[in-house]
Amino acid sequence: MVGLHISSAGSLDLAFDRAAELGATTFQMFTRNPNQWKFKPLAEETVSAFREKRKSSGFSKIVDHMPYLPNLASPEKSTIKISRYTLDEEVKRCDTLGIDYLVVHLGSHLGKGAAVGIRNIADACNQAVAGSEGATIILLENMAGQKNSVGARFEEIRSILDRVKDVRRVGVCLDTCLPPGSPVMRGGVPVPIETIRVGDEVAGIGGWPTTVRRLIRRPYLGDIVMVKPMGLPWLHLTPEHPLLCTKVSRIKTLEESPWRVKMMDDPRWVEAGHVEKGNYLIMPMVKEALVETLDFRQYPGSHTRRLPFSSTLPLTEEMAEFLGLYLAEGYVYIGKGEGPRGGDLSKIYLSFGKHETDLIRRGVQLFERVFSLRAWTDERESVVCVAAASNILARFLKSNFGSGARTKRIPPFLMGADPGIIRAFLLAYHKGDGTTNEFGVYFITSSTSVAIQLIHLLARIDVHAVHQWHEPTRNEINGRVIEGNGWHSIHVARAEATKLGFEFHVPTFPARTILRTPEGYLIPVGAVARSYFEGEVVNLTTESGSFVAPFVVTHNCHLYAAGFDIGSDEAVGNTMGLFGDMVGFDRLKVVHLNDSKSALGSRLDRHENIGKGKIGRKGIRAFLHYPGIQDRPLIMETPYEDVKTMKTSIKLVRTLLQ
Prior knowledge:
alpha+beta
């Protein structure tokens, strides 16, 4: 369907005759003067003539354009009132005439922020739809990006659509001229999604590393879906964000056996808003490159004369044991020496209770056996510190494990280690920061990163664990207020703990709620809830099309004057791929097909005849041949001087479509 913006001067039904004369198969029009607030009600004879002409002409899709004066994004009460009234009445006029689509400019937030404009536009659309008894679809037109405008970014359009109550009645008109804190597994380490950069490698589907190709940030106002995988922390997602899910299709009873087997459906992508209790989420084992040797040559300081131990050391079980104790009980001090040569004066400490004599003795042995360092003990009020001096080792530990109990992390070389190394590391960590009771074993940490990584490490050696967060405490003792920070506990039940070497009497193995696969686990959804959120949300596009955040597999969530290039096949693919990811082609109903007088990213709305502007024939052809574009009404808005030029433009577009 190819057409233009057609004049309706004289009588609305004359637009059909004018469009037919030009050879158009669709058109856009105004039902009233677009430069005035006042308008006349539709007369019965006008409505009758318009509907009869449409029936006889055979045009399948007709588009109306809103007047130019309303500003639906405005924060000013008086403007909001008259703008919404205009939209309400225009939707009703379209309903009465039987017009399919109403294109609206989104307007300006006048410096109050995109979030304010997005909320006001969505509220205006909801009000107009609620007051309408017809089927006209409101179309949000993307903007060129003038100062304070809303809608130049696909993320802003997506945010408006997320707040719309009746999704059937609001879509998108694409104009070719107008254009925080969730953890992601990077290098085996959970990092806030907003810190990810293009080119980083994150864990993708199957747990294998995948490269980040694009970052997406957008303001968001609306519901956040909270999904609780059983035994894991809550996930927070926008409602349209897909998760890789499966569910039980049937229960199979084995012959001559009391066991019943759950038969699962094939995994599929499910939007977070449609995830239900009882669905199973996919938790892959995060895979990192196997490291067998650690290189210390990058850690000497400026005054290091020689390495106190070999420049490379094998990652042995004794090395892993030392690192586990350090993560649980260790810290480093990096000071400066005196004198003209100065230099670092660094020490490593392992801090134990006075009663932990075996650990104290073992700490001294590990310093000497693994690093050839002479260690000593430093007894204080309630603890005994095992200490050794080494600038290189101190910098190595600080660089790889972080500093401070709440910000520590497990380095990637341990996340990808052999099972024997992982087991030695975990058992040593448990000796330092763990406990055991009749229900199993517990790993304790105040670091969110370490808590997430411990679950992944345990999964690497086929041990399932569950997470629990303990809230901060506040007590008063002898008039003193004692405040305790919150902490994480990672619980391994008795049957699973036997795989780590712990001895428990387990008469029968319990029925498995958590299901194992060769690549990881299927975790049932224990609860789903919603909360309101207002702020920025972030997403990634990766080469594999997915990423792990932080336990389950989730999908990527995604023109010219606004900086979206459509000048070539590759550029069109990138821009429209982003549109599809961010907004969705199911919401695209109409295309305003215009070339641009303005340069890429100019943020100026200046239409040019097709093929004569900055986009050019090559770009227009590439855009027209992008899958799904040809199925939408294509409306040219360039101001033409005569009928011949208009006919030529329609003919050119049809040629480019071939």
